[in-house]
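testing teh design pipeline on a random one, pls ignore if ur not involved
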C-alpha cells in the first residue's frame, strides 16, 4: 500500500493553525476587495468590503465554530467602542473645532491657548503634553479625534506624540491601582519615567 504525502504551503499552514478556513474563499475576498479599490476613489470602500467579506466567510464557516464566535465577539466589542468614539469626536469638535473641505470651524477653546501651551516643539510644550496625557482620563480610541482637533488648533507634532504616548500608559485610576500594588515610591518612579520618555520622544519626533 502506497503512502500519500501532502505538501503544505504557507497558506495551508496558516489556515490550519489559525483561521481554518478555505484559502479559496480568502483569495475570492481579496479579489473583490481589489476590484472595489479600483472602482472607488475613497479608501473607505475597499476597507468596508474587506471587513464585510472576512466577516461573511467566518460567520458561514462550518469547519470551526471558533471563527463564528470570533466574529460575533468582534461585533459586540465594536458596538461598545463606537459610542465612545462618537462621543469623543463630538467633544473634540465642540471644544477644539474641526476642519471640513478646507473650511475651519472654530471651537470653544481659543486656538492661541493651544498654540501657546503645546505649539511648536519646545521642551515645555512636550512636557506639558505628557503631563496632560498622563492625567487625562479618556478612552484610547477617543485620542485620535482629540489629537486631530488639537493639531488643527495649533498643537505641534512632537507634543501630539508625547500626549499620545503618555495617555494610554497612565491615568488617575491606573496610578491608584499601581500604587496599591507597588507602593507610592515605585509608582512615582513609573509615572516619572513615562512622562520623561514621552517628552524626549516628542522632542525627537518634532525635530525630524
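output:
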Amino acid at each position: 500500500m502506497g503512502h500519500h504525502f501532502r505538501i503544505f504551503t504557507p497558506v495551508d499552514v496558516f489556515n490550519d493553525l489559525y483561521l481554518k478556513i478555505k484559502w479559496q474563499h480568502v483569495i475570492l475576498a481579496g479579489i473583490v476587495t481589489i476590484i472595489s479599490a479600483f472602482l472607488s476613489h475613497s479608501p473607505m470602500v475597499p476597507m468596508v468590503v474587506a471587513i464585510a467579506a472576512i466577516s461573511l466567510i467566518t460567520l458561514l464557516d462550518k469547519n470551526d465554530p471558533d471563527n463564528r464566535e470570533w466574529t460575533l465577539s468582534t461585533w459586540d466589542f465594536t458596538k461598545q467602542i463606537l459610542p465612545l468614539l462618537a462621543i469623543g469626536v463630538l467633544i473634540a469638535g465642540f471644544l477644539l473645532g474641526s476642519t471640513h473641505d478646507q473650511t475651519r470651524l472654530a471651537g470653544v477653546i481659543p486656538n492661541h491657548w493651544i498654540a501657546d501651551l503645546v505649539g511648536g516643539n519646545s521642551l515645555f510644550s512636550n512636557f506639558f503634553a505628557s503631563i496632560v496625557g498622563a492625567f487625562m482620563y479618556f478612552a484610547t480610541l477617543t485620542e485620535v479625534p482629540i489629537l486631530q482637533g488639537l493639531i488643527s488648533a495649533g498643537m505641534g507634532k512632537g507634543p501630539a506624540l508625547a500626549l499620545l504616548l503618555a495617555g494610554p500608559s497612565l491615568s488617575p485610576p491606573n496610578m491608584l491601582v499601581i500604587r496599591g500594588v507597588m507602593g507610592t515610591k515605585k509608582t512615582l518612579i513609573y509615572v516619572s519615567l513615562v512622562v520623561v520618555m514621552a517628552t524626549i520622544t516628542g522632542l525627537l519626533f518634532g525635530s525630524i
